[in-house]
Amino acid sequence: MRTMTDRNALIQPDRGQKAVSIQLLDKAGLEPFLKTLGEGQRAALAAQKFEAAPGELAIVPDGTGWYGLFGIKAGEVLGTWALARLAEALPGGTYRLAASPARPLPRLGDALVGWICAQYRFDRYRTESTATEPRILLCSELRAIEPALAEAAAISLVRDLVNTPAEDMGPAQLETEARSLAKAFGAEVHVIAGDALERDYPMVHAVGRAASRHHAPRLIELEWGDPRHPRVAIVGKGVCFDTGGLDLKPSSGMVLMKKDMGGAAHALALARLVMGHALPVRLHLLIPAVENAVAGNAMRPGDILRSRKGLSVEITNTDAEGRLILGDALTRASEAEPQLVIDFATLTGAARVALGPDLPAIFARKDATAAELSAAGGEREDPVWRLPLHEDYRDYLKSDVADIVNSHANGFAGASVAALFLDRFVGEGIDWVHYDTFAWRPVAKPGRPKGGEALGLRAAWGLLLARYRDLNPDT
Predict the structure, then answer these.
(1) Of these four, 80, 141, 217, 457, which has the most CB atoms within 10 Å of its CB?
(2) Which residues contact 139 (CB under 8 A, 6 or more apart)?
């Protein structure tokens, strides 16, 4: 699946290759810089109305060639998306960021990720490619290159999986993606599919049983790493298309439902980062993958499902299916007694109403874990926002005929109540974080095109790096 032109070539070590220079300026540095220019160069900048505003690009003639000026925010550290607009605006070619005695070159850090992501294209279904000549950036901070390439690749993986329509990205294709990762990193994969799910993963089976055989449900498990290392479980909601079931969505609510496997996409991408960096953890990836379809054997409102944990669940809304499949998967993850569980899901519209499309809601049992995750997101310009697991709202999940309902009736605190439902299936005392993310960008921003998007992925990766990167399991 093609995402961009030779992604690994977009950032290259600076070994003195021929390149066009780009000078970074903030507004405070513009006037001193103008004094170093010739009259013709100043006139060229005046004609372009360059004021060194963030994201503003100007071309400066220089003999028979040219160099660029690019406006950035004041400060010495570049943010993730600081260079994204530059990568989008420049013509194809090779570039180098210039340093000067008056302004040392800011640490590139995460800005390399934005440079790469700005050149993402999803043109699998176009008869003519939308790819342009690549913009290559030379980098003297050699240690920053590989992490940036890895994170950009993970973001691109999420975008690709979410952008692909459901007919080509069903449960079987998610299994293929997991097997591909396993082969690349020497992991083990175990899959239970179809009617074989009914005994051990009854809620996964109930949600997915109405789909065609081509899109049969499955529970995908991947395990990797040294068993002596701390066990970390990553769980992703894999509803590859959500009709709403018998509580059918209107067409306006169904049009983007190819993205309802966005949680699985995030989980796969995070697993890729963990294995690619050889993080010293015992990774347990779980993806319950289904299509919530309509057929004569679809689950019905009023049905009572048993779960892997043994709790009985009354179905009050067939469109609240994601929490059902996650319940079985979280139970399985908990059985192995992990040190940390992170789940990703495009779970509720309530989270989007509360926080909009850009901010994933997070729910955490431990305040310290929520604070770590928020800090990691802030460092990477991948913000998250904590919502409460408010104990009093557990009453909203009471059923007259079963242990629990899957959807409460009053409409209040929908994201929190859904998270409380999931909490019932996570083992007691386990450090657990639940993401309610959108996985979609409705309006393009520099480096972030409209369409499938990784939202909260790098924050989670930052949390894992901070906890486990320097761990010595033998001490």
Answers:
(1) 217
(2) 11, 12, 13, 14, 108, 112, 145
